[in-house]
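Q: Focus on the chain.
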Amino acid sequence: MIVPVGALAALSAILFGIGLFGFLARRNLLLMFVSVEIMLNAVNLSLVGFSRHLGDPRGQGLALFVIAVAAAEAGIGLGLLLVLNRNAPGAGVADLNRLKG
């Protein structure tokens, strides 16, 4: 069964909207990173859907690149979160200015 490309685009737009709302509405750094991951997965869904619809594998290759960037972003983000939590337990996003060296 082939899913219509319009349904994939709609699902991707909904997921991106949820991720954007989560990023803008939250003050918790970990939840902000989860929201960014949701947005990147929405982009991946649209890339793969349109790639399959057009019969061009370049979109799937680009989706793999986005997954690699998301993994790097998660590693850096969790590192920042650990450093911030060691310096000031319970600190929020507004306290990231303390990390300037």
Summary: The first helix runs from residue 5 to 25. The mean pLDDT is 88. The radius of gyration is 17 Å. Helices lie at 5-25, 29-54, 58-87.
